[in-house]
């Protein structure tokens, strides 16, 4: 049975064959007196207030089977939890993993075998940092649909607990701790504030084994009285909607169908006030589903990737599977593959002293296995263009043997694409040899949150992630040879534009393994010069260039108008925006009227969405690409999509010395010797 998203999923509990209590509500019953409180974070004796510190004597019985100190490492190593943000991981309309951390919502609960928590989505943070539901939740939500499907299809859900969770009332050893696999027993809706929110009850799959998070010296499951499969929660049929709902709270039964007129009314009478403390009904907490040996998880709770890798796999280094994370066999930490050569548990930036590391067999991958063409390089590359994108100016003479393609965006900048061929690539110390040489050098490549492996030479500069910088006098010969090519290419592009050439003093080396890519970004920081050049080695890639969102629309993603709208050709509503700007400039309308007309005719009527790429380039092995012009990085952004195989991208830029610490200036000092200078052949 394949999971399908229903047109409208409802969180109902089907009638049990032999319910403990059943019947029809025919008249309102006298509700239990409700105690009001100012706290809305917890609502039962088992859930202590967030400000209450863990009790010092409440140690856990054991240790988690796997743990992590940050979300990326957790998601790298666990196939059943890939959610870098949010608490629900779902894929293919199935919920695979769940994280309970700082905010489980009001009326939540946690013990050794049962978890009751809210379902994420439709929330925002208030002034105190608490999540507040701002819209009704229903079965159209992807998260709720996946949870309902996992319940219906009997798919166990792996659960992780963060150390900011206050329900357990005992200290946890790590930031994120893998608990166990759980079954979803019930999904229902409640009134949370003025909105309708979903709640879910999880029950531990293996009830015969004591949980590691249980209190130390607490009774084992078989010695714990009062729990059993015969004790099932009460359920009643609503007189208004004729649907069954289980009894959740001691204060009385309530219909849990959001569309019912008696929804969230105690015994069909009045609704509890938002600040009321409700206590979970004993039968609801202590009921257990009968054992079902057919319910088995899809993934191992703690996967063992290393056991599936063989040292004889010569190309394992670059394969997609090997840049996933692993679980350290010594300390059980989730480890991302941060290093080019493999995995290391202890990082330079943490206090861990675990000695574990696993080195993959590093054997250079032949160029033959990353390029599909019959011949790895053409005699002269034949070119064609898609009419949907800009067609470049072609020059086969001025920089021969390169084919020079120039894409010009008037008033913004230009992109020069130098297309390599067999003569260029096969020369001594040319691109073919550089591809192999880079694989044999200890480059210090490390993987950062952007997913590529990086190393930097020259001037220090902080990118989206901070990358350590080495001086050029520490650089290996392949890096210096590549720098010679990039310096030559940058100079050709700048001189063709009639501008002053600033030699590059920094190089960033990116190594792309299988399936890695880099999304849309720009290099337009004020500390950088106007020229960025890249040498591509290995697998081909596709480079796309598009106008940035705010310049394409004339307003930011938050719908704030641009104070100075450049109104560039190709932007949305170009004619109307150009007309309004002309009227502002000739004085026929003032600034206030200009903004109002833009707001009325462009912002309110405009639809969001990114700009369509205007330039598409196929960048092959040995090609050089030079982007020149400050406006190009300011108004446009680009992405790179490699062809799933090993690729190196060496990018050179000029960092303005006035933006660099005096102590670091020497790192960018570079005088290319005769053996490193490139002549364009």
UniProtKB/TrEMBL annotation:
PANTHER family: ALPHA-KETOGLUTARATE-DEPENDENT DIOXYGENASE ALKB HOMOLOG 2 (PTHR31573), FE2OG DIOXYGENASE DOMAIN-CONTAINING PROTEIN (PTHR31573:SF4). Residues 35-50 have a biased composition (Polar residues). It comes from the Eukaryota. Transmembrane segments: none annotated. Residues 1-21 have a biased composition (Low complexity). One of its GO terms (molecular function) is ferrous iron binding. One of its GO terms (biological process) is DNA alkylation repair. Residues 503-656 form the Fe2OG dioxygenase domain. This is Cysteine desulfurase IscS. Residues 1-69 are annotated as: Disordered.
